[in-house]
Amino acid sequence: MAFIHGKKTFVSLAAKNLSAYTTTSQMEKNSDSHDVTTYGKDAHVFSGGLLGGTGTMSGIYDSTAVTGPRAVIEPLVGTVVEWIRQPEGAGSGLPQDKVQALVLKYTETNPVADMVTWSCDLQLSDVINSTAQAA
Asked: Which of 11, 110, 122, 133 has the lowest CB atom count within 10 Å?
């Protein structure tokens, strides 16, 4: 068993690397569920349906004008762009998830006694391309 540290994770949105501003990311893969129970059954019977999913990213706000999270993500709200997530970092043979994603929401949080943070909610659009990274 090989444990992997989260610090190696790479994320990009619309071909913009957001890794330096991101402290957490999550990709949820799910499926529709259809009740196909028929007469005579004593319990529900289910069948899978269309695949789907959501994603989130969040981190420490950085006011960098062209590459910071606000500059990159805020203009993308309401659009579908490519999201790439490499949970073990970049490298030949390591896993990579690439998917089109609708940028649903960009949020900034300003606590009085802490750093400003940001978060982004994504709705996955179409099939996730989960492959090993090429050399």
From this structure: 110
pLDDT digit string (tens) for 19-38? Answer: 999 999 999 999 999 999 99
Label residue 132 exposed, middle or buried (CB < 10 Å: 0-12, 13-18, 19+). Answer: exposed
Specify burial of residue 32 (Cβ count, 10 A radius: 0-12, 13-18, 19+): exposed
Token representation of residue 79: 């659009």
87 Rama class: left (phi>0) / alpha (psi -120 to 50) / beta: alpha
Number of Cβ within a 10 Å radius of residue 19: 17
Question: Which residue, among 101, 105, 65, 69, has the nearest Cα to 85 in the 3D structure?
Answer: 101
Domain borders along the chain are: 6-30+52-132
- For domain 6-30+52-132, which architecture applies? Beta Barrel (2.40)
